[in-house]
Amino acid sequence: METRPEVCIAIVGYGGMGKAHAYGYRIAPLIRTLPCRPRVVVITGRHAKAVEHAAHAYDIPAWSTDWRAAIERDDVDVVDVCTPPGAHVEVVVAAARAGKAVLCEKPLAASYAEGRRALAAVREAGVLSAIGFNYRRLPAIALLKQLIDDGAVGEVRLWRARWLTDEFADPATPFDWRFDRGLGGTTIADLGAHLIDLAEWMVGEIAEVLAQSATFIPERPDPGGGPARRVTVDDASSALVRFASGAQGTFELARSCIRRPCDMALEVNGTRGTLFFDYARLNELWFGAADDDPRLYGLRRIRAEHPRHPYAAQWWPLGQGVGWGSSFVNQVCDLLECWPEGPWEPSLAVGLRVQAVCEAMERSAAERRWVTLAEVERAAQHSE
Ligand SMILES: NC(=O)c1ccc[n+]([C@@H]2O[C@H](COP(=O)([O-])OP(=O)(O)OC[C@H]3O[C@@H](n4cnc5c(N)ncnc54)[C@H](O)[C@@H]3O)[C@@H](O)[C@H]2O)c1
């Protein structure tokens, strides 16, 4: 007889991430033996027809256009926030006040000040909370982190991260929240948040940044056929960073690169070795060490699918690999494995750190100067 308790989830937002998270809850019990059984009980959105369609497609028994009523349901244990960034904090705060655990998609908010409100609310309510940095949970990226922690590259000197896509390259792409600064749709926060998280997770806190941004297409067609809408976000940004450890790094983030679908790459150079990850081959990691036999000079390709590698044993036989969707399944497994005690990682505090770095990059690009993280934190404290 099944004795494990059910954990009931309300998903707020039925778009790309609502679908990815619904997939995560459904597949998780197939991949890991959990102490509880996840069940998505309701999904919400603003447009009745569309959210109803999504509920049927994702096999969720109830849907609503009233997210407040949905998250306050007595049977809901976890609120999973999958709306645009500018609509995250209101939901996180309401969920925390209703005593629900919260999983919030990245970035935490549209601004650092707003993000502070979200963190304060979950702390005050004492509820579990996590931010959706799912890329941490791909086997090769988790292995990259593990190898750095094990000292495989020695002391980290340089970090390099880039993420190139072509989703904004076509001027005919209509306006939506991704072009709207008020809803937090910046390229810095969209692509950068994941990379900043990975950088701080692997190398430690970023202390200061020097950034530049560009908006190549200043207007977009209005989806409702009205006058063209003004774009208020960056199409591309790049930054130099200095970590508190003394390591240096670079970020390049762009949604305007023709024929680049989702080309993310990470590289770490340390005193004794190099690690390189290329998302197009997401089950692989490249590694070379100074003390390798000189006849093996270069980087070797590790297949991050061995049962000894993080997450890999739970998935498919060697050589079959995993994909992006697996990171959402692994996210559910990691969070629910320690239900209801926690702790959940990465926490909203991590999300807020990342938000501070995003804000430092925006300020640096606007003012054409180095900006410290301490400055961003001080400014937020003064304005409260
Ligand atoms: N972890 C990842 O890999 C990943 C990938 C893509 C997006 N995201 C993040 O997930 C979140 C949602 O992105 P998405 O791609 O699912 O977006 P989407 O546009 O596909 O879906 C957004 C959902 O929010 C609703 N919505 C749209 N505008 C709204 C508004 N102004 N107020 C309230 N609700 C609104 C929509 O109706 C829809 O249900 C964002 O924070 C985004 O940055 C994460």
How would you characterize this protein structure?
The chain is an alpha/beta fold and 384 residues long. It has two domains: 6-133, Rossmann fold (3-Layer(aba) Sandwich), CATH 3.40.50; 139-322, Dihydrodipicolinate Reductase, domain 2. The protein is built from eleven helices and 17 strands. It has helices at residues 16-31, 48-57, 67-71, 88-97, 112-125, 139-149, 187-190, 192-203, 324-337, 348-367, 373-383; strands at 6-12, 37-44, 63-64, 78-81, 101-104, 129-131, 156-164, 206-214, 219-220, 229-230, 236-243, 248-254, 263-270, 273-278, 284-289, 300-303, 371-372. It has a nine-stranded mixed β-sheet with strand order 16-15-14-13-7-12-11-8-17. A six-stranded parallel β-sheet has the order 3-2-1-4-5-6, with helices on both faces. Helix 4 runs parallel beside helix 5 and helix 5 packs antiparallel against helix 10 (348-367).
What's the SSE blueprint?
Blueprint: E1 6-12, H1 16-31, E2 37-44, H2 48-57, E3 63-64, H3 67-71, E4 78-81, H4 88-97, E5 101-104, H5 112-125, E6 129-131, H6 139-149, E7 156-164, H7 187-190, H8 192-203, E8 206-214, E9 219-220, E10 229-230, E11 236-243, E12 248-254, E13 263-270, E14 273-278, E15 284-289, E16 300-303, H9 324-337, H10 348-367, E17 371-372, H11 373-383
Parallel strand pairs: 1-2, 1-4, 2-3, 4-5, 5-6, 7-12
Antiparallel strand pairs: 7-13, 8-11, 8-17, 9-10, 11-12, 13-14, 14-15, 15-16
The structure holds nicotinamide-adenine-dinucleotide (NAD).
Nicotinamide-adenine-dinucleotide is lined by residues 13-18, 45-46, 82-85, 87, 105-106, 132, 134, 177, 183, 190.
